[in-house]
Amino acid sequence: MRRAALAAAALLAALTLARLPDACASGNALNHVSGAWMTLADDLARGTLYRPLRSAQGFGGTRYFPLAFAVQAGLRRAGLGPVAAGEAASLAAGALLAGALVLLLRRLGAGRADAAAGAALAFAGFAGQHALLSARGDLLPVGLGAAALARLAHPGRARVPAAAALLVLAVAAKPTAIGAAAAAIAFLAFSGAGRDAVRLAGLVAAGSAVALAGVDALSSGRFHEALAAVGSGGATARSILAAPLRIAQELLREDPAGLVLCGAAVAVLAASLPRLARRGAADPRLLPALWLAAAWALALAVFGSPGTGVNHLVEIEAASAALVCAALGPARPAGLARAGALAAALAGVALSLSLWRADRAGSRLEEARAVLRALPPGAPLLSEDPLVPLLAGESPVLLDAFALRLVAEEEPAFGAPLEADLRRGAFPAIVLLADLRAADASRWYACGNLGLPLVGAIRDGYRPAGAFGRYHLLVPRGGAAPGVARRGAPR
């Protein structure tokens, strides 16, 4: 069964790589959240680190930490377009994660084939496959966290400061990277290196505080302003209690292949507990087991926000792959690990083939370009998905439609000027992700993007002018009102 598992993992890796050109061309891994990340990068490339919540530039507000979109901004300054920069940054982060997992597993004693299988299995679920080209910040912190764990798994005097530096970078990419930091500290403590555990905790805490304070200073306080406004993601006591159910729903509906991988890891962890209790840090499965436990704990906290989705399962699936493949050797429960690896790899193969077919059958980028071809000449855009104006060469008026709803619900006066503009048809064109005539449109906008007051104003001031796949174009009912200047220039 071990050979079959390794062969299936190799096939998964080959299919994942083979489908990337079609996936890049289609842009089907992109969505309006990707558009927000690309807009942050576009703003930074133009010289603005975190735009204000409201200004002449448009509407800001985001929970995203800066490192991942700073990488995209660097690629933009090097000459790449917004989509190419976003996809290149995601692919590079995916390569970092794969390499870090191979290094981690090798340092834990796994053979070359088992370590390579671990890297492949990290992308067996939809969360990992989607993140490869999503132009978002999910893979980079996980890759940096895995690299930090790999550094700790290698004895040496410099391992603590090196791991701390990697973990600080990971936190600068995404706050949930503290899960890998917690796993690293616990591993050192279980290894009898209590002083090193305390030193690592102090270095990561101090380094992260300095880095984020620097970001806030460079943004003239806009980073803190954005986090204060939307950092909770709209979490309530009810949504926090529902977090386990939401994770289960995401796995069942959006990522059944990831569910197979996570199930295999949980089974291996349960079967390994007696051996881990006896051997402690001498068992190579301890570090990935701690990482997996920390990833699950962070996911439960993150899914307390109704704005979270399947992308937040990336770290769980990477840690699951590491644990399963660390257990492929001769020690028990090798048989269970091999069966789980085989099942997860085959599920990933089926998923990869399905995504490849979808990429060949349709293209989100072509749908967005079709919207642009249908616009009135020179019309500025207000788009729920910032990708559309970015493709037009414009700086999007709206950074994050979900964040806008949160701010407007907390402070109704904040959205009042935009609501008035929409009611009078001030924008010559609006692009939405839902058909306002559909039965479920109100639910989408009440619990997700924009909010019902703004959508009500759009209904009053605009009429449908065409549907282009997942995009819906609207134009003013009585012709565009004056007063909105075009932003940017056509590409």
Concise structural overview:
Helix content is 66%, strand content 5%. By secondary structure, the protein is mostly helical. The strands form two sheets. The protein has a four-stranded mixed β-sheet. A two-stranded antiparallel sheet has the order 1-2.
Please give the order of strands in the largest beta sheet: 3-4-6-5
Find the structural class using helix and strand composition. mainly alpha
Principal-axes shape call:
globular
Number of helices: 23
Major beta sheet summary: 4 strands, mixed
Question: What is the CA–CA distance across the termini?
Answer: 53 Å
| Contiguous uncertain segments of 5+ residues | 481-491
β-strand amount: under 5%
Fraction of residues in helix: 55-70%
Rg result: 23 Å
Tell me the series of helices and strands, N- to C-terminal: HHEEHHHHHHHHHHHHHHHHEHHHEHHEE
Instruction: Please tally the β strands and state the result.
Output: 6
If you average the pLDDT, what whole number results? 91
Layout: helices, strands, pairs:
Elements: H1 2-26, H2 32-45, E1 54-55, E2 58-59, H3 67-77, H4 82-107, H5 112-121, H6 126-131, H7 139-152, H8 159-173, H9 178-190, H10 194-218, H11 222-230, H12 237-241, H13 243-254, H14 256-279, H15 286-302, H16 314-326, H17 334-361, H18 364-374, E3 381-383, H19 387-391, H20 401-410, H21 412-423, E4 429-432, H22 441-447, H23 452-461, E5 462-468, E6 471-476
